[in-house]
């Protein structure tokens, strides 16, 4: 039995803790804030409830496996998990809309043909089929197995090429040999393969942006994201996604995991043999450990290593893709008078009329934000637990924004700028919810600074899942660090961010600790 110290009580850290405690290890979680769940939070006020982090769960099999293997009560006995259907609605800049059913490829084809023109559904299906090929090639090494020491295969572009129609005779000779194509990007395949249907390119770009990826540069392999979403479906947890975090916390307690809240770790201690030996807490207390798990952004983990006297050499190569900007989220929680309309859907994406300006602001720092019309995701769960009664509704709006947005504008000026951006989010959401502004009883605006306070992420950045391609720029830090006995877990580590990927991170770290070099990944 080993002593294991865990830094942070996020979803990945708790997933690893439950598995390790079941195996007989003594696990203590040191959490800087006063609660568990990391970025999976809930705002409750006046009978209204809002998810302030993820609002939909994809790949729930990760948590089904976790609950099945760590206790007698299965996931569905711990939370009320329901499929999201329709899967989503898209409202395009020209005013047209497409409502996509869940678990029905034929229904999606019909909806896209009606919204974007005949043939649009077939074009989208073709793209998803290529996304499927990426997923099948990358699923094990990218998600279900520890990140390989040699990431060359994952650094390569896995998106299958779509050759242009071959010429014949003189035309072929005049063309000559085709030059090598540049690496494909999300925007590139949107323009090239979906160019006849601009709405589809807009949808594809939004799938990347929703995870914090710049579609202008994200590898074409990101086409696996809409494939996974449409194939495996989205799921909602009654009472909000926070209920999943609560259930995981309770499972950890059942397994004997100890939690210390308000316990900030200020250094990772390393013994004379170079192996992790425990953590130091604010105030000077020490917690010895045989193994340390860190659910932290790479930069923060590096700070704790330096504070523990670890040479810079230990940090080399620990943060693949660290130079890539990771954006944050802006969230607006709306308490509305009037009940939810019958044709409302759980998730609606209202696309920006000027995506180029929006991307330049988020990823290139070209402002000001006052010129940006944001892409807004509208969450309208049909959940009595999230509203005081049937005559009211809780709606959550989110938009991708630069990490640290408005932080440079201190005090009242920063608050006014954020509120003005929230006004534009509400105005955009009004395209999906008619009369929205007039229904607002009150609202609460949550900026990246709020996320930073809760998760410790720099600028409130929210990590996305791992992607293959682009020379490895979209691969997160590996779980096994350069310091023996120190492991990275959670959304900032392999296989990346989001509830499912963070949960898988916990499974991988637990497997590495329990099985060592023989561990071949989750099954």
In short:
The chain is α/β, with parallel strands linked by helices and 523 residues long.
Task: Map the helices and strands.
Layout: E1 3-7, H1 11-22, E2 26-31, E3 42-45, E4 48-51, E5 57-58, H2 61-70, H3 75-78, E6 81-83, E7 88-91, E8 97-100, H4 105-116, H5 120-144, H6 152-155, H7 169-175, H8 186-193, H9 198-210, H10 224-232, E9 234-237, H11 242-254, E10 258-261, E11 265-270, E12 276-281, E13 286-288, E14 291-294, H12 298-307, E15 328-337, E16 347-350, H13 355-364, E17 376-379, E18 392-401, H14 411-429, H15 436-439, E19 440-446, H16 448-455, E20 486-488, H17 499-515
Helix pairs in contact: 1-11, 1-17, 2-17, 4-5, 5-10, 8-9
Estimate the helix proportion, in percent: 25-40%
SS content category = alpha/beta
Order of strands across the main sheet: 8-7-16-17-18-15-19
Kindly provide the radius of gyration, computed on alpha-carbon positions and rounded to a whole number of angstroms: 23 Å
Uncertain stretches = 165-180
Strand content: 15-25%
Written description of the protein model:
35% of the residues lie in helices and 19% in strands. With 523 residues, it is of the alpha/beta class. A 7-stranded mixed beta sheet has the order 8-7-16-17-18-15-19, with helices on both faces. A 5-stranded parallel beta sheet has the order 10-2-1-14-20, with helices on one face. It has a 3-stranded antiparallel beta sheet with strand order 5-9-6. Helix 1 (11-22) runs parallel beside helix 11 (242-254), helix 4 (105-116) packs across helix 5 (120-144) and helix 8 runs antiparallel to helix 9 (198-210).
């Amino acid at each position: 039995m080993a002593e294991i110290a865990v830094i942070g009580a996020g979803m990945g850290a708790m997933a690893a803790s439950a598995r390790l405690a079941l195996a007989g290890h003594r696990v203590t979680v040191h959490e800087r804030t006063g609660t568990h769940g990391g970025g999976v939070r809930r705002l409750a006020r006046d009978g209204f409830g809002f998810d302030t982090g993820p609002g939909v769960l994809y790949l729930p099999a990760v948590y089904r496996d976790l609950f099945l293997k760590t206790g007698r009560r299965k996931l569905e006995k711990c939370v009320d998990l329901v499929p999201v259907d329709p899967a989503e609605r898209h409202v395009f800049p020209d005013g047209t809309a497409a409502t996509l059913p869940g678990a029905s490829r034929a229904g999606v084809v019909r909806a896209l043909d009606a919204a974007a023109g005949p043939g649009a559904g077939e074009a989208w299906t073709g793209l998803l089929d290529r996304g499927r090929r990426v997923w099948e090639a990358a699923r094990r090494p990218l998600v279900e197995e520890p990140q390989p020491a040699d990431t060359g295969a994952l650094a390569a572009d896995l998106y299958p090429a779509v050759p242009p129609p071959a010429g014949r005779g003189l035309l072929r000779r005049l063309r000559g040999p085709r030059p090598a194509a540049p690496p494909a990007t999300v925007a590139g395949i949107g323009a090239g393969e979906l160019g006849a249907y601009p709405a589809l390119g807009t949808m594809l770009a939004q799938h990347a942006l929703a995870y914090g990826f710049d579609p202008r540069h994200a590898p074409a392999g990101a086409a696996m994201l809409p494939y996974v979403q449409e194939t495996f479906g989205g799921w909602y947890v009654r009472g909000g996604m926070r209920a999943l975090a609560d259930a995981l916390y309770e499972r950890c307690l059942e397994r004997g995991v100890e939690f210390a809240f308000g316990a900030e770790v200020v250094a990772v201690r390393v013994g004379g043999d170079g192996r992790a030996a425990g953590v130091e807490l604010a105030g000077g207390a020490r917690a010895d450990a045989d193994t340390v798990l860190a659910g932290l952004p790479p930069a923060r983990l590096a700070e704790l290593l330096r504070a523990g006297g670890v040479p810079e050499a230990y940090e080399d190569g620990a943060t693949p893709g660290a130079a890539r900007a990771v954006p944050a989220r802006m969230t607006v929680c709306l308490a509305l008078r009037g009940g939810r309309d019958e044709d409302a859907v759980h998730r609606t994406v209202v696309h920006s009329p000027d995506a180029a300006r929006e991307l330049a602001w988020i990823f290139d720092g070209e402002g000001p934000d006052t010129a940006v019309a944001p892409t807004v995701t509208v969450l309208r769960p049909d959940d009595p637990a999230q509203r005081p009664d049937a005559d009211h509704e809780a709606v959550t709006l989110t938009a991708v924004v630069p990490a640290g947005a408005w932080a440079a504008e201190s005090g009242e000026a920063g608050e006014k700028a954020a509120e003005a951006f929230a006004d534009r989010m509400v105005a955009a959401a009004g395209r999906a919810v008619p009369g929205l502004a007039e229904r607002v009883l009150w609202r609460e605006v949550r900026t990246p600074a709020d996320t930073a306070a809760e998760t410790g992420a720099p600028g409130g950045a929210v990590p996305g899942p791992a992607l293959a391609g682009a020379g490895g720029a979209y691969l997160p830090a590996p779980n096994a660090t350069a310091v023996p006995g120190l492991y990275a877990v959670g959304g900032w580590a392999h296989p990346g961010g989001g509830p499912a990927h963070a949960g898988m991170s916990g499974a991988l770290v637990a497997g590495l600790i329990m099985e060592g070099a023989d561990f071949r990944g989750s099954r």
